[in-house]
Amino acid sequence: MLGQIGPGGFILIMVVILLLFGPSKLPELGRAFGRTLREFKLGAREILEDEQPLSKEGTSRSERNPSLDGPIASQERRLPE
């Protein structure tokens, strides 16, 4: 989508943004956009790290929860690995 916008299109977009927000608000908007992008990347990285398969971790479900007892333990034994 952005590949189809030429240099003239980018200049037009920047002029419209400048007219809408004014020159005093542009640095503040840039900082807010940068913070938002950084937080998004951090969250995406955390999600990807959390979803690593168990085979890479080398632990099974029973090894992760060795102290379960009572009805919870019986439910845990019924679940497939």
From TrEMBL:
Transmembrane domains' residue ranges: 6-22
GO BP term (any one): protein transport by the Tat complex
A molecular function (GO) term: protein transmembrane transporter activity
UniProt entry keywords in alphabetical sequence: Cell membrane, Membrane, Protein transport, Translocation, Transmembrane, Transmembrane helix, Transport
Family: Belongs to the TatA/E family.
Location(s), subcellular: Cell membrane
Assembly notes: Forms a complex with TatC.
Topology in the lipid bilayer: Single-pass membrane protein
NCBIfam families linked to this entry: PRK14861.1, tatAE
Organism expressing this protein natively: Insulibacter thermoxylanivorax
Name of the gene this protein is made from: tatA
Main location: membrane
Alphabetical list of InterPro entries matching this protein: TatA/B/E, TatA/E
Name of this chain's protein: Sec-independent protein translocase protein TatA
Function text: Part of the twin-arginine translocation (Tat) system that transports large folded proteins containing a characteristic twin-arginine motif in their signal peptide across membranes. TatA could form the protein-conducting channel of the Tat system.
PANTHER family for the chain: SEC-INDEPENDENT PROTEIN TRANSLOCASE PROTEIN TATA
Cellular-component GO terms for this entry: TAT protein transport complex
Domain of life: Bacteria
Region (Disordered): 50-81
